[in-house]
Amino acid sequence: MSGANAGKWLVLERVTKRYSNFLAVDGIDLELRNGEFLTILGPSGSGKTTTLMMVAGFTPPTSGSILMNGRSIAGLAPERRNIGVVFQNYALFPHMSVAENVAFPLKMRSETRSITSERVARALDMVQLGGLGGRLPRQLSGGQQQRVALARALVFGPDLLLMDEPLGALDKNLREQMQFELKRLHVNLGITVLYVTHDQEEALTMADRVALMNRGRIEQIGPAETLYERPANRFVAEFVGESNILSGVLEPTHEAGRAWFVPARGPRFLVSLDRSETPPGEDCLLVVRPEKLSLGPAADAGDEGLRGRVTQLVYVGDFTRYRVELDGGLVLTLKRPNSTRSFRPAEGEAVRLFLDPDDVCILRDRKGERT
Amino acid sequence: MVMAGQRRPMGPGQAGFWRSRQGLLVLPPLIFYLLVYIYPLSRLWAWSFFDQHFTLEFYRELFDEPAYFKALTNTLEISFLAAALSLMLGYPMAYLMATTSPRARNVLMAFVLIPFWTSILVRTFAWIVILGKNGLVNHLLGRLGLIDEPAKLLFNMTSVQIGMVHVLLPFMVFPLYGVMSRIDPSLVRVARSLGASPRRAFLRVFLPLSLPGIGAGCVITFLLAVGFYVTPALLGGQGEITLVMLIDMMVNTLLNWGLAATLGIVLLVVVGIIFAVFSSLLGVERVTGK
Ligand SMILES: Nc1ncnc2c1ncn2[C@@H]1O[C@H](COP(=O)(O)OP(=O)(O)O)[C@@H](O)[C@H]1O
Ligand SMILES: [Mg+2]
Q: How many A from CA of A50 to the centre of ligand 1?
C-alpha cells in the first residue's frame, strides 16, 4: 500500500445520503485501518444501515466518496467490491443447503469443485458447523444460521466484512458467546470489520474503536474507554452507559486545575478541569458515572462529602442502585457493589456522598443546540 | 396462496374444542360442493355410459370422429399457449410490483385490477371492434404505412390468444406477486455482495424462489383457459373450435346429452392427468408447503 491513505483500508469522506427531503446520513467521515474492528453504534434510525449499504454498494451516496485501499469504489457494482456482508436476518438462501450457501460465492468466482468443497468444509469447521453442510437453513437454530451466514461471508476471503446487527435476533447467552467467537475470528483472520449495532454493551466489548452515530452524524469516534470516560457531548454521555448529568456553573478556586462546580440547586463541590472544555464562569454540564460515586455514614466525624439522604434503593444482584437526594434537592444515582464489608445504607438513611474531582467530566452546555 | 396461513393458534387444553369447531366450518362448503359439483358430476359420469342400457357407444364415437379429437387438442393447445403467454407477460409485471416502491405498486395493481370491472363479454366484443378489418389496430398500422391492406387479426389464434390472455393475466400476476412479495429482498442483495451479477442473482436466487408462484399461476390460468367459452367462441374461427364449444353444441343444438357428458368426462380426465404431471414436476409440496 502507498499514498496518503496507506494503512487506511476503508475511508469515508463527507458521505451523505439524502432521501427526498430527509438526510439519512449527513456528511460522515470515517477511517478504518487494515485489520481494525470498528463498530458503528447508534439508536435505531440513526443511519447505520444506510452507511453500511453505501459501503456495500447497494445504495449510492448522494455525495461524498468512499475509498477502499486508497481507491474510490464509487461506480463499482456490489459484486466487484469483494466485501462480505452479514445481515441481521441472516439472509441465507432457503432453497440451498448449508454447504451450497457457503459454496455460493466460490461458485460465482468459478472456483474448481475440489477447491470449493475444501474451502467450504474449512469455513464450516471454522464456525463449528462441520458435518451440518447437508442441512437446509430452516433446519438450523438461529445461532447456527448466523454462523452459516458468517462462514458464507468469509469463505471467499473478502477485503472487508460488514455486519448489520448480526446478533440482534439471538438471546442473551448466545449473543455473548457469539460476541466472543466473532472477536476470536477477527483476531485469527486479521480481517477488517465494520460492525453495526444499537446495543452499547456489544459495541463496547467488541470493537477496537466505536463510532457513535445519531441522526445521520457521528457524534464521537474513539476507543470504547474514551467514549465512556470522556464523552464529547451530552448525547454520548447519555447513550453510552448511565450518567448523572447536572447543569451548573464553574467558579474558580485557588487550587490549580480545579474549580468549584455550582449546580442549579444543592451544594457546590470541587471538580478537576482535566477533562473540561469550559472556561470558569460559563454554564456547563457535569457528567459523572453512577459507579464512581461512593457513600459513607452521615455520623462520621469531619465534614468531607456531601450530605444527603437515600430516597430509593434497588437491589440488582451484583450491585445496588441508590438514589440520593442531597441537601438542597439535587438528586444523584449511584451504583455500589454488594460486598459484605461495604457501607450499605437503608432507604431513608442520612448519608454522605463522596465524589472524586477527577472522576467527573465537564461539558459545554449547548442549550438549544442539537444534542 | 390458498393453503398458506390457515393454521390458528389454539390453547393446549382446548385443542378438541377448536378442532370440532373448525370441522363445522367446513360443513357448508362441503354440502354446497356435494350438491352442485359431486352430484352432477356423477350423473354426467353415468350418462356417458348409458343410452337406455349400459354402453360404450359414446366413447367409441368419440375416438372414431377426428373432429372431436381435434377439438381436444385445440383446447389443450390454446390453453397451454394462453398460460405460457400469460406467464411471459405476467412475470415481469409481478416482478415490478414486488420490487418497486409501494406507490408505484398501487398504480400497477390498479392496472391489473381495472379489467375486472368489465364483464368478459363486453371485453371480448371490444376486441372485435379493435382488431376488426376497420378496427383501431388496422387503422393505425395503415396510417403508419406499415401495411397496404388490412391484416387479418380476427377469428384466428391471434385474436383468441389476445382475448384470453387479457382475461387471464390477473390470475397469473396475483399468485406470482404473492410469492414474490414474500421473497426477502436482502437475499438478492447478499447474492450480489457474494459476487453474483444482477443476472446471476436473479437466475440463482430470485427465480428459484418464485417457482411456487409460477406453478400456481400456470395451473390456475391453464385450468381457467380449458373452461373458457365466450372468448374462443367469439374471437376464434373454424380452426379454434374447443371442446367446451363442442359440448355446448351437443347440448343446445344436437341434444345429444350422452355425448356431451362423455366429452366432459374426457376433458376432466385429461386435465386431471396434466395437472398431476405438472404439479409433480414443480413439486406441489414446495408450492404449498413451507
Ligand atoms: N429507502 C429509504 N427511503 C426513505 N427513507 C429511508 C430509506 N432507507 C432508510 N431511510 C430512513 O433513513 C433513516 C436511517 O435509516 P437506517 O440507516 O436504516 O437507520 P439504522 O440502521 O441506524 O436504524 C431512517 O429514518 C429511515 O427511515
Ligand atoms: Mg439498521
A: 6
Q: Are residues A191 and A248 located together in one domain of the fold?
A: no
Residues in chain A within 8 Å Cβ distance of B194: 79, 84, 104-105, 108, 152-153, 156
Hey, CA dihedral for A212, A213, A217, A219, is it positive or negative?
negative
Pick from A105, A151, A109, A102: which is nearest to A126 by CA?
A151
Pocket test of ligand 1: the residue of A16, A46, A50 to mutate, having most ligand atoms within 8 Å of its CB, is A50
The pLDDT mean for chain A works out to 90
Domain co-membership, A77 together with A200: yes
**Tens-place pLDDT, residues A67-90:** 998 899 998 999 999 999 999 899
Q: How far is CA B131 from the centre of its chain?
A: 23
Question: Are the C-beta atoms of A304 and A357 separated by less than 8 Å?
Answer: no
Position A370 in a domain: no
The Cβ of residue B16 has, within 10 Å, a number of other Cβ atoms equal to: 9
% residues pLDDT > 70 (chain A): 94
> Is A19 a pocket residue for ligand 1 (Cβ < 6 Å)?
yes
Mean pLDDT of B171-192: 95
Q: Which CATH architecture has domain B55-287?
A: Orthogonal Bundle (1.10)
CATH code of the domain in which A289 resides? 2.40.50.100
Answer left, alpha or beta for residue A264, where phi above 0 means left and psi between -120 and 50 means alpha.
Answer: alpha
Per-residue pLDDT tens over the stretch B74-102? 999 999 999 999 999 999 999 999 999 99
Residue whose Cα lies nearest atom 25 of ligand 1: it is: A45
- The residues, any chain, with a CB within 8 Å of residue B128's CB and separated by 6 or more, are B135, B154, B234, B235
